[in-house]
């Protein structure tokens, strides 16, 4: 009985993840310059993607989202 409940919950979580987690490519436009737009995969960190493209943003917490130093504005597609 317990095994059936656990298997059912795991199946439910897998279905929910497939429906709720973003997949595919993401476009990042920095300072409104569409010519210098960056492409990355969904799930990668913003600071990491910017640093990979030689755009460095100060972040006291290292991108953990706790200090508020690296503020960004999501204009479209934020979830």
Automatic annotation (TrEMBL):
Q: Does the keyword Flavoprotein apply?
A: yes
Annotated signal sequence is none
Cite the InterPro entries for this sequence.
2Fe-2S_ferredoxin-like_sf (IPR036010), 2Fe-2S_ferredoxin-type (IPR001041), Beta-grasp_dom_sf (IPR012675)
GO molecular function: any one? iron-sulfur cluster binding
Per UniProt, residues of the 2Fe-2S ferredoxin-type domain are 24-79
Q: Which UniProt keywords apply?
A: FAD, Flavoprotein
Question: Cross-referenced Pfam families, in alphabetical order?
Answer: Fer2
Xref: PROSITE patterns: 2FE2S_FER_2 (PS51085)
Instruction: State the protein's name.
Output: 2Fe-2S ferredoxin-type domain-containing protein
Can you name the source organism?
Answer: marine metagenome
């Amino acid at each position: 009985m317990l095994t059936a409940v656990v298997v059912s919950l795991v199946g439910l979580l897998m279905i929910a993840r497939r429906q709720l987690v973003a997949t595919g490519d993401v476009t990042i436009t920095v300072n409104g310059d569409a010519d210098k737009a960056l492409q990355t995969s969904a799930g990668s960190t913003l600071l990491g993607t910017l640093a990979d493209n030689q755009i460095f943003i100060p972040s006291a917490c290292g991108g953990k989202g706790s200090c508020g130093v690296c503020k960004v504005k999501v204009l479209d597609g934020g979830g």
